[in-house]
Amino acid sequence: MANPKAKKKNDKDPAVDAEAAKTAFDKLLPRLDELPGDNLLVPNTAADAAAIAALRVASEMNAPAIRARFESLPKKEFDLGYLDDLEHAALATWYATTQLLEANASGTEAKLPVDLVNEATDVKARMLRVCDYHFEPDTEIGRQVADIRVGTGYRDLAQDLSRLGKIFRQQEAALAGDKKHYRADDADHAAKLSHSILKELAATRNGEQKLWTERVMRTWTFLSRAYGEVSAAGTWLLRHEGGAERFPSLVAAGRTARRARSEGTESEGAEAEQGSAELAGG
After folding, report:
1. What do you get for the CA distance between the two ends of the chain, in Å?
2. What is the four-CA torsion angle of 28, 221, 49, 239, rounded to 10 degrees?
3. What pLDDT, in 10s, does the model give residues 28-50?
4. N or C: which end of the chain has fewer CB within 10 A?
5. CB-CB neighbours of 121 under 10 Å
6. Domain segments of the chain: what residues?
7. How many CB atoms lie within 10 A of CB 86?
8. Please, which contacts does 104-107 make with residues 24 or more away whose CB atoms are closer than 8 Å?
C-alpha cells in the first residue's frame, strides 16, 4: 500500500500532513457520531482527492482578507462555523478514506458469486452500448457514461449499475425505440444487481472495513454540508472575482482523480507488458 502521507500533486493542491489529518478527525469524531445514520451520504467519487480540493478552497477562503468578507455577512444569512469547520472536515475526510484503503488492503478480498458478477458485467456492457448509440460524448449524459466506464472493482460495478439504471429511467422515452440493445426491464434489473453486489460485499467485510466505511460516509456528509454552505456564500461574495470558478465541484474533482488513477494503472500495465516483450525478445 502507498505511504499514507499524500504528496503534492500540483501547484494548486496542498500537501496533506497525516498527523494533522488524524488530529482533525479525532477532534470532529464526537460531532460525526451525532449525524443521523439515515441521512449519511455515500461518496460517489474519490473522497480523498475531493478532500484535497476542499482543503485548497479552505486555505484560500481563510486568508485574512477573504475571511473578513465572510465575517461581514449577517449571522442569520451565513454561519461562520461552516468556514471554521471546512479545513478540519477536509482533513478528516482524507484521513478516514486512507484508513478505509488500509483496511481494505489488509482485509480478505471479497468473493462474489461468479454468476452474479458475470450477469452484472453483461448488463452493464449492454446498457453502455445503448448509451453509446443514443448519447454523444460531449453531452451531459455522455460525460456521465464516460465516467462510469472508468470504474473498477465490485463496488464501482454496483454504483455503475445504479447510475445506468437512473439514466435509463430518466431517458426512457428516448431509448424505448431501440429494439436492438435496449431492454425495458434493464433499469430495474440493474438496480437489483447493484443491491445484490453491495449486500454480498457487506457480508464479507471485516470489522475495520465496516467501521471505516461508515466513518468515510460520516466525514463525507459533514464535508459536503460545510463545503456547500461556504461555496454558496463565497460564490456570491466573490462574484466579481471569478466566484463560481473558485469553488470546484468536489464530486468532479474526485472523479477526475479517479479517472487519472485508472489511466495511470492502464499505462503502467502497458509499459510492463512492453518491457516483458522486449526481455522475451532478448
Report:
1. 33
2. -100
3. 999 999 999 999 998 988 999 99
4. C
5. 13
6. 18-107+207-276, 114-204
7. 23
8. 104/209, 105/1, 106/208, 107/205, 107/206, 107/208, 107/209
CB 135 within 8 A of CB 142: yes
DSSP 210: H
Which residues, in sequence order, are CB contacts of 135 under 8 Å at separation 6+? 141, 142, 145, 171
Predicted structure pTM score: 0.63
Rounded CA gap, 128 and 178, in Å? Answer: 13
DSSP-derived 3-state class of residue 179: coil
Residue pointed to by grid coordinates 516483458:
276
* CB 55 within 8 Å of CB 122: no
Alpha helix positions (H), 107-206: 114-134, 140-149, 153-170, 172-175, 186-204
List, in sequence order, every residue forming a beta bridge with 6; answer none if it has no partner: 16
Cα 244 to Cα 239: distance, rounded to the nearest angstrom: 7
pLDDT at site 13: 54
Contact 141, 167 (CB under 8 A): yes
Local structure of residue 40 (DSSP, 8 states): P
CA pseudo-torsion sign 134, 136, 141, 145: positive
Query: CB-hemisphere CA count at 13 Å for 96?
Result: 32
Radius of gyration of the chain (CA): 21
Scan for cell 485508472, then name that residue. Answer: 262
Could you give the CA distance from residue 246 to residue 60 in angstroms, rounded to a whole number? 9
C-alpha cell at 219: 466525514
Q: Which of 55, 64, 86, 73 is nearest to 233 (CA)?
A: 73
Is 261:253 a contact under the CB 8 Å cutoff?
no
Give CA–CA dist 202/277, Å, rounded.
40
- What pLDDT, in 10s, does the model give residues 173-190? 889 888 878 888 999 999
Reference 206, options 116, 99, 106; nearest CA is: 106
